[in-house]
Amino acid sequence: MTTRLSNADVPQGFTFAATHCGLKKSKLDLGILISETPAAAAAVFTTNRVKAAPVIASQLHLRQSAHRMRGVIVNSGNANCCTGSEGLSAAATTALKLARELGRLHPSQILVCSTGVIGAPLRWQKIVNAIPRLVRVRKRAASSFTEFTRAIMTTDTRPKWAAAKCRIGGAQVRILGCTKGAGMIHPNMATMLGFLATDAAVSPKLLSRALRAVVERTFNAITVDGDTSTNDTVTLLANGESGAPKITDPNDDWKKFCAALELVCQSLALQIVADGEGARHVIEIEVRGAPTDRAAKQIAFTIANSPLVKTAIAGADPNWGRILAAAGRSGVAFDFERADISLAGVKVCRRGRENPFDERLAHRKMLANYVPIVVSLHSGDGRARVWTCDFTAEYVHINASYRT
Question: Which of 25, 235, 370, 389 shows the greatest Cβ crowding within 10 Å of its Cβ?
Fold first, then answer.
């Protein structure tokens, strides 16, 4: 896994650019990610019944293009959601303009994404006017990709990116990704916005299979506040420019590719949690011994989304009763008198009752940036792991004044 981005980490055949088009007062607010050759494409989208116009447009484009894409355009500062036919027209016009500027492509080869305030009309003319320059200045460069990562930010305090490499058939394959998200994070088949590019050659069918499996274990295993966005989208483009043999079967090469993809996505997912609005702690919740894996995940997410648990972690308070109470209301049947809980490495509950422990030691350990919670139910073989963050007063401050 790369810790410092260089040009060597950027997949072959991809270019990036970003600019300030005027949707925000001064910061970067528009970016493009372009494959210079046709790329296999996979994507996952929000399952919220309220879907933003760019989500609807991108889903349509994937079907129309048979999952062969040339690029993505994304704006921040406005979600283009709940904007009626005008919003759909804005998304279509944006895709058409970028397709023409890239060389008379069909607009269905462009994915469109937006993030920001819901319900405000999108000033799409600002986007369209900025596209020609974006196309002209795009580069395969780490600096251009870094600007792209900043252009997609809203309440994020820092850009989030990750890169990995693997060898397929003797050739080096690169995977590069970025994401944005700090609030309204409870993914259900996606995160707020995530963009992945690779120069591996993978069939669209296997690319979709890989992305969905990896998303389930990474982006779908995090929560900040229990809210699933209207714009959630994760895209993955694979253009084959590495020269590696094409992956058309779920063989060892495919497994190596999936492992590298998961490294990137897990890093991005944890960066989202670490940058949760107002957060000071990353919390890992592992549930063991549940009736099934699905039941374990249900319990883990119930604990992760509990305001009482999250505020206790914010105060470094080893209040294990809140954890067990949250598990008990998850809807999963288990015998609480068999449950054990460890908090920050300290066993605080045994068989559903307090296990004598050093309160001061537990408090000191909970002051760390990373706080693990392990809940052992002794009720089966199911297990799951999810990540969240604490709730602080700053979360309320950010979201109480988001529009003003």
Answer: 389
| Long-range pairs of 248-252 with CB within 8 A, sequence gap ≥ 24 | 248/203, 248/206, 249/206, 250/206, 250/209
DSSP labels, 254-289:
HHHHHHHHHHHHHHHHHHHHHT-TT---EEEEEEEE
Please say whether the beta carbons of 210 and 193 come within 8 A: no
Structure tokens at 118: 């819901």
Angle subtended at Cα 148 by Cα 144 and Cα 151, rounded to the nearest 5 degrees: 135
Residue located via tokens 């596209």: 131
List active site positions: 191
Burial status of residue 348 (CB atoms within 10 A of its CB: 0-12, 13-18, 19 or more)? buried
Give the confidence band of 47 by pLDDT, cuts at 50, 70, 90.
confident
Helix (H) or strand (E) holding 7: none
* Euclidean distance between the first and the last CA atom of the chain, given in angstroms as a whole number: 39
3-state secondary structure of 83: coil
In the chain, the domains with their CATH numbers are 7-274 (3.60.70.12), 282-400 (3.10.20.340)
Is residue 182 within 8 A of residue 155, CB to CB? The reply is: yes
Going from the C-alpha of 346 to that of each of 268, 316, 359, 369, 374, the distances in angstroms are 28, 13, 10, 16, 10
10 Å Cβ neighbour count for 315?
12
Output the CA torsion 291→296→302→303 (10° steps). 110
Q: Distance between CA 155 and CA 183 in Å, rounded?
A: 7
For 305-359, the pLDDT digits (tens) are 999 999 999 999 999 999 999 999 999 999 999 999 999 999 999 999 999 999 9
Residues 386-400 have a mean pLDDT of 81
Asked whether the beta carbons of 20 and 29 are under 8 A apart, the reply is yes
Q: Taking the mean position of all CA atoms in its chain, how far away is CA 281?
A: 18
User: What is the residue-wise DSSP string for 299-316?
Assistant: HHHHHHT-HHHHHHHHTT
